[in-house]
Amino acid sequence: MGHVSFWSFSRLLRDGCRIWLVTAFILAIVWMTLRPAFAIEAGQTATGSVEIGGKTLPLPPGEWTVYFKLDENGEKFSNSKLGLVLIKGNTIRQAVYFRTSTSKKSAGFRPYEQCAQPYYFHSETALNQVGGKQDCWHVLAETLAPNEPSDRQKAITEFARSRDLFLPLALVGTRYHRADQKTLLQATYGWTPDLILKAPEAQKVWRFQDWTAEAAASDPRKNIVMSKFKRWGEEWRPKIEAAFSETAAQ
């Protein structure tokens, strides 16, 4: 009966370890390639897209940092909320907020009251049915005033404070709302207006009321800015439609 020498055994062991390390490295590369760009906790980052509530939602270019995440599982609905920011230097340059909801009984959702408001720069509503299809989007200003009571607002305020970041008092951008009997999707994309136009010296920073439809109509510069966001929103809308249609078909 043959035997294996100590040196032969050492060589076999060394070769086996080398093969294992190469295999582990390849598997790690594959995993990093296939995994979704999704951060599950505040402070983590994502690029390209994020997954929330079974939906893959697109992100504008850049590395986005999660500041808020919440999952709720109720008797009739399961809800997910996710907020991310794009940081430039010591300033929050952009912010996105996604919300999804699933009706466990496929009973649909109430009409969305925010499909159209007089302060929106632009709004389009295709459908807004009770318990049925809902489809609207708009170009708007959103307040980020620190006295807002929502969990989302508290989270972004604390995030900015903990990192010593400039947090604007308002964002300008687009919001999309889609729903059917089973699922609801809202996606909001906002930009810091202070990085686009300089606020008056006496005021220092822009506020929500400075970017309403009325305010934009009275200032040609703001009108140009909001018109650009309207064009951006029109170009981005098919991405939201694809994200919603993908899950609706499941």
Q: What is the secondary structure topology, with strand pairs?
A:
Blueprint: H1 6-34, E1 45-46, E2 49-52, E3 55-58, E4 64-73, E5 77-88, E6 91-103, E7 122-128, E8 134-143, H2 151-162, E9 170-179, E10 183-191, H3 213-217, H4 220-248
Antiparallel strand pairs: 1-4, 2-3, 4-5, 5-6, 6-10, 7-8, 8-9, 9-10
Outline the structure in words.
The protein has 250 residues and is an alpha+beta fold. It has two domains: 1-35; 38-248, no CATH class. It is 30% helix and 32% strand. The protein is built from four helices and ten strands; from the N terminus they run αββββββββαββαα. Strand 9 and strand 10 (183-191) form a beta hairpin.
How many domain units? 2
How many distinct helices?
Answer: 4
Written as H for each helix and E for each strand, in order along the chain, the element string is HEEEEEEEEHEEHH
Low-confidence stretches: 19-39
- Overall geometry comes to globular
Write out the strand line-up for the largest beta sheet, numbering strands in chain order. 1-4-5-6-10-9-8-7
Mean pLDDT: 85
**Structural class, judged by helices and strands?**
alpha+beta
Rg of Cα set? 24 Å
Q: Tell me the β content.
A: 25-35%
Give the termini distance in whole angstroms. 62 Å
Structure at a glance:
The chain has about 250 residues and is α+β, with helices and mostly antiparallel strands. The chain is built from 4 helices and 10 strands.
Descriptors:
250 residues; alpha+beta; 2 domains; two-stranded antiparallel ribbon; 10 strands; 32% strand; globular
